[in-house]
């Protein structure tokens, strides 16, 4: 089955008056590219969070945002006055002609100016965070499955269009060869002592050069294989991309041998549909 590389999942929980929210979103990418933004208190667990996301998400350009929001009035936040004063003294020594409030504005943005009680992450809070991350990943995967189903329906319609156009080629095959035979026979009437055996050998050689039966068979097989992989294999995006490339080779060869305006039109339609398939396949996990 198809999974979309695009996904979104959000989950949240409340732990001791603090609301913890986890957002995960992704776009298509050839590899796994993960960006995690988390509050400082959860930094020590970032490696474990990354490993969990890597194991579950597999591929895509992924952003994971973890946010904490206090739901209660709290006096736990404390300004470290001595640190602020020290920063201001150092800033004043660097540039003594600035207004005092400018030193203060810069100092309060410096590290360790604010401190909170119970800033260390305890085991129970980590367990709560882990649960909400896992819940967000589950919703993210559900989103991918839903998008994948929609993607599969769209791709299958386009593949069917290619197959329908391929089937229409057969009705023009006699038309593309017979005029050539007639043209040669008409030209040969102006010559005497024609070696008919050599003439028919040349005709057979020319017709074989224009023969498209192998291309039609191979393209039909690629179409069937594409649909089989799409319906029955997991994490099949790269494989589907390879099969689409093979389909393109057969369509191009078909066009170069067409020698008929209506077949050329069908080839153009197939190329247009194939480009749509390639574009959609880029978003398949």
Describe this structure in words.
This protein is of the alpha+beta class and 285 residues long. The protein has nine helices and six strands; from the N terminus they run E-E-E-H-E-E-H-H-E-H-H-H-H-H-H. The strands form two sheets. Strands 1-2-4-3 form a four-stranded mixed β-sheet. A two-stranded antiparallel ribbon has the order 5-6. Helix 1 (46-57) links the parallel strand 3 (32-37) and strand 4 (60-70). Helix 2 packs across helix 3 (100-107), helix 4 (123-168) packs antiparallel against helix 9 (261-281) and helix 7 (213-232) runs antiparallel to helix 8 (237-257). The relative contact order is 0.14. The model has no long low-confidence stretch (mean pLDDT 86). Residues 175-284 form the Endoribonuclease YicC-like C-terminal domain.
Descriptive terms for the model:
elongated, alpha+beta, 6 strands, 285 residues, four-stranded mixed β-sheet, YicC-like_C
Biggest sheet, spatial arrangement of strands: 1-2-4-3
Major sheet description? 4 strands, mixed
Proportion in helices: 55-70%
Alpha carbon gap, first and last residue: 10 Å
Provide mean pLDDT, rounded: 86
Structural class: alpha+beta
β-sheet strand percentage: 5-15%
Which residues sit in consecutive blocks of at least 5 with pLDDT less than 50?
A: none
Tell me the number of helical segments per DSSP (H or I, 4 or more residues long).
9
Shape: elongated
Strand runs, count: 6
Secondary-structure element series:
EEEHEEHHEHHHHHH
Radius of gyration: 33 Å
């Amino acid at each position: 089955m198809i999974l979309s590389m695009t996904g979104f999942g959000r989950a949240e929980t409340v732990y001791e008056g603090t609301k913890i929210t986890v957002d995960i979103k992704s776009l298509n990418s050839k590899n796994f590219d993960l960006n995690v933004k988390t509050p400082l208190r959860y930094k020590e667990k970032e490696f474990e969070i990354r490993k969990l996301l890597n194991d579950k998400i597999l591929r895509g350009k992924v952003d994971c945002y973890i946010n904490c929001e206090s739901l209660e009035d709290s006096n736990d936040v404390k300004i470290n006055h001595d640190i602020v004063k020290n920063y201001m003294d150092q800033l004043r020594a660097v540039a003594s002609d600035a207004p005092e409030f400018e030193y203060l504005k810069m100092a309060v943005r410096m590290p360790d100016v604010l401190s909170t009680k119970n800033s260390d992450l305890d085991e129970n809070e980590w367990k709560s965070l882990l649960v909400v991350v896992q819940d967000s990943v589950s919703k993210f995967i559900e989103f991918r499955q839903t998008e994948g189903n929609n993607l599969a329906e769209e791709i299958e319609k386009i593949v069917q269009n290619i197959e329908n156009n391929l089937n229409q080629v057969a009705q023009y095959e006699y038309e593309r060869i017979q005029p050539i035979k007639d043209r040669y026979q008409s030209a040969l009437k102006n010559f005497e002592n024609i070696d008919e055996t050599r003439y028919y050998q040349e005709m057979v050689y020319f017709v074989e050069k224009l023969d498209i039966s192998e291309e039609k068979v191979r393209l039909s097989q690629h179409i069937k294989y594409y649909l089989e992989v799409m319906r029955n294999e997991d994490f099949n995006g790269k494989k589907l991309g390879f099969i689409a490339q093979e389909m393109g080779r057969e369509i191009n060869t078909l066009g170069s041998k067409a020698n008929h305006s209506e077949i050329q039109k069908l080839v153009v339609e197939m190329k247009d549909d194939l480009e749509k398939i390639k574009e959609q396949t880029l978003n398949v996990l």
